[in-house]
């Protein structure tokens, strides 16, 4: 699990930076300001959750259990659905892709809920 989540964090971090640069330099004259802001939202959520995946990978070395694994899986699915749908919506212009975005947001919420539940189950150390 450590290797998988670290590789996903690195991949999503790398592509998030690349897509952010692409939007700032390659898309700023091709997209409307509204679509550029939507694309930027996708990049922001991708980068935030790439860092969350990195944290999940490190946490998985200390905590065993399904909740931590499900958090990482949910964050990955969230990036693909939420950010991916925003990228496609803005660059391809298919408005119906917007129906996918909330499912990505739900996956993000599930990931954070799993992390919270994993923390809740920890035994106090004091």
From TrEMBL:
It is a multi-pass membrane protein. InterPro entries: DUF423 (IPR006696). Pfam families: DUF423. The chain crosses the membrane at residues 39-60, 67-87, 99-120. It is found in: Membrane. One of its GO terms (cellular component) is plasma membrane. Keywords: Membrane, Transmembrane, Transmembrane helix. Belongs to the UPF0382 family. This is DUF423 domain-containing protein. It comes from Pseudomonas kribbensis.
